[in-house]
Here is the input.
Amino acid sequence: MGVDVFFVISGFLITSHLLRRPPRSASDLATFWARRVRRLLPASYLVLAATVLATVLVAPETALVPTLREVGAAALYVENWSLAAQSVDYLGAESAATPVQHFWSLSVEEQFYLLWPLALLVAAWVATKRRSTLASTAHVAILALVGASFVWSVVATATSPASAYFITPTRIWELGAGAALATLAATSAWRLHPALRVPTAWTGIALIVGSAVVMSGSTPFPGWAAGVPVVGAALVILADVTRGRGSPRLVGDLRPVQWVGDISYSLYLWHWPIVVLAPFVVAGNPDLLDRIAILTLSVVLAAVTKPHVEDRFRRHRGRARTTLFVTMGVSVAVGVACFFAASTLQDRSDARLDAAEESLDQPCIGAAALDEGVDCPADVPLILSPADAAADKPSAYEDDCWESPPFEETTTCAYGDVDGDVRVALIGNSHAGGLLPSLQELAEKNAWSLTTYVASQCPTSDALWEFESAEA
Here is the structure.
């Protein structure tokens, strides 16, 4: 829920800033983007570099390739699309979380920062042609965008929930909600009655807290459910409360709360890599003391990063275009380097797997080592690395025999003797698919006709399943 609130606040603040200083030229756009780059990227690159190093030092070999791939995506700020692509893969959907998975929300935000000034530049041109204000023109367009994105979010959450959580079109309405509040404030003298401000603010806070308490990982999200924290955040912004009896500002003005707010960006960057990598350090699930240590380390690193990295680069006053060119170069270089390293490591893993397959006919491999006529040494090295496990899949994957959601057509593959008298059907999900190599060998030896009917997320059952949304 915190991400949804974060999106609303970001949309409000950035749009308010752009309305006060609307972009009217390429130079204005470069200045805006350069400020965002100085504010956000140095700390994120530091965390990405530290995460790769920590993964090499403490994580198992199996974690390195996926981490490098996602660090590359995070450096290019397309991590949300990378995770969406993985989430629709049945075998990838249950993969362990990587240390940079939280960069998906930062990717959505950066994509918003890239496109939003361009959208307002177009809105400014339209406003000039229509002889209206930028805020009023943008307000209408933003409301249309929010409506379209929200509908997309609801439909995608119902039909493709795995990818809907990450992709930008299903999230842009949350940023747009904050942007709509900014244009409303700029176009209207209307303000909430003072007597209603405090109750409105507390209502918004209650919606945010309530959604965090009531909703769980099984709640379809974003879709309709995301409306609760988004409306809550919008009410808090709309209330625009000042100090006074019963005001939430009394809590927000506390020095510790403000200090946490100041380091919140760095804290967000650091906390997730530490959470993901900590179990490898403590060799198990962290206990209470371990969790306290995780929190403490996250806060300490954030407190150091804020003044020495965030503030230092934010205050730098270089040329905007130079800043952008350097940043683009670094981002592309880091992304390409990470993808190249991941590809190289994967190629080595594939080569080991090929060597292992070629060695299956050797006398001292597997059950053949039990043959009485074979003299096998006791120090035969282990051929496979745990990192090769992900590539150890039945031929049904390579032969593209799988049906995947939304199951629009039936996909089958035939093995063995297709005209054989004995016909065998392999039906089920990936568990059934795991039996294919053995059945395939039996079919070839015994002239069976083996046909696969395998589908992701679709186990066999002798019961009749009926779904509420199914058509008669």
User: Anything to note?
Assistant: The radius of gyration is 27 Å. The beta strands are 402-403, 413-416, 423-428, 449-455. The first strand starts at residue 402 and ends at 403.
